[in-house]
């Protein structure tokens, strides 16, 4: 009986194919929009997670000043760190994998006829550990280069491309500002971050070299700290804050430095993207309700058009529930067909959108199943009233209908 009822519903849909197609358009748009928004939101969340993971494993960033205070806020001025601050953190804080003091400045890089404005960073080999950088080719700095302030450098992928094109730069001598440096290594590319910055546009040189020959001072802009696996970054953060307050003689009042835990940043950003994804999905789901109203409207029209058919079925012995089920199944089949088409359209749109937004395509079978079930539920909810109206018709009045 169920199969016969479904076949009858499909036959009616096929008989009015154009009208049926327009009826389910709202369901198609609603399901496709929900799947597209949620899938793209998942891709954005995955990209943010990946980009923050590229910053380093269990990373904390220590900087002078009190950080940014809301949109457009500026960091308060404070004394810069010294190398001894980084050394104290490495010696006195338990559970650290590496500590890297960093100072940086934008300079002009020159090789032959090519030049490129880039960021020169002074640090130690620990920078590769805290930032989870890999070398594509070459080597890190030797102890004599680190201690003696030798003119050696490691190039990021963007600087290599802009200055050397397809050439091998290992062993070549480039100018950074007015100083000459020998290229000893090449960083593997990390690409663009979610924050809109090119992670590969920098040159790393020994910290002592930077301080003596470029900056002309012993200041350290920031200190990267990497906690060991299994260590609580919250505890490490508290320990660093206590140590820095002691070293900077802060007894009362606000700290003139701040320690940022990248895990907190990750939680904040992923939480924000999930909320936005949920809101966009909820807005898109409104189309499903609009589609449901369209189905109810068309089913009411269909009941009116088929009044004599309903009267004949009731007159020859069909029960009220049989007529009700016929029209209800017809509404559910309509909405379910719209849901299936919407799923296909939504997945295709999500794949295309992920490509253009340069985010990974993260397939979510849960949202596909929920969208399909919801589309079927829309058919039940909005098809029940017309079906009930058809089932409660008086057979005699229905047969008199012209």
Q: Which helices and strands occur, and which strands form pairs?
A:
Blueprint: H1 2-15, H2 17-23, H3 25-54, E1 59-64, H4 83-92, E2 96-111, E3 114-123, H5 126-130, E4 135-138, H6 143-148, E5 152-155, H7 157-164, E6 173-176, E7 179-187, E8 202-206, H8 207-215, E9 222-227, H9 233-247, E10 257-261, H10 262-305, H11 307-315, H12 320-357, H13 365-391, H14 395-400
Parallel strand pairs: 3-8, 5-7
Antiparallel strand pairs: 1-9, 1-10, 2-3, 2-6, 2-9, 4-7, 5-8, 6-7
Helix pairs in contact: 1-12, 3-10, 3-12, 3-13, 4-9, 10-12, 10-13, 12-13
Structural overview:
The protein is of the alpha+beta class and 402 residues long. The protein has 2 domains: 2-51 and 273-400, no CATH class; 95-226, no CATH class. It contains 14 helices and 10 strands. The protein has helices at residues 2-15, 17-23, 25-54, 83-92, 126-130, 143-148, 157-164, 207-215, 233-247, 262-305, 307-315, 320-357, 365-391, 395-400, and strands at 59-64, 96-111, 114-123, 135-138, 152-155, 173-176, 179-187, 202-206, 222-227, 257-261. Strands 2-3-8-5-7-6 form a 6-stranded mixed beta barrel. Strand 6 (173-176) and strand 7 form a beta hairpin. Helix 4 crosses helix 9, helix 10 (262-305) packs antiparallel against helix 12 (320-357) and helix 10 packs parallel to helix 13 (365-391). It is elongated, with a radius of gyration of 33 Å. The two termini are 30 Å apart. The model is unreliable at 68-76 (pLDDT under 50).
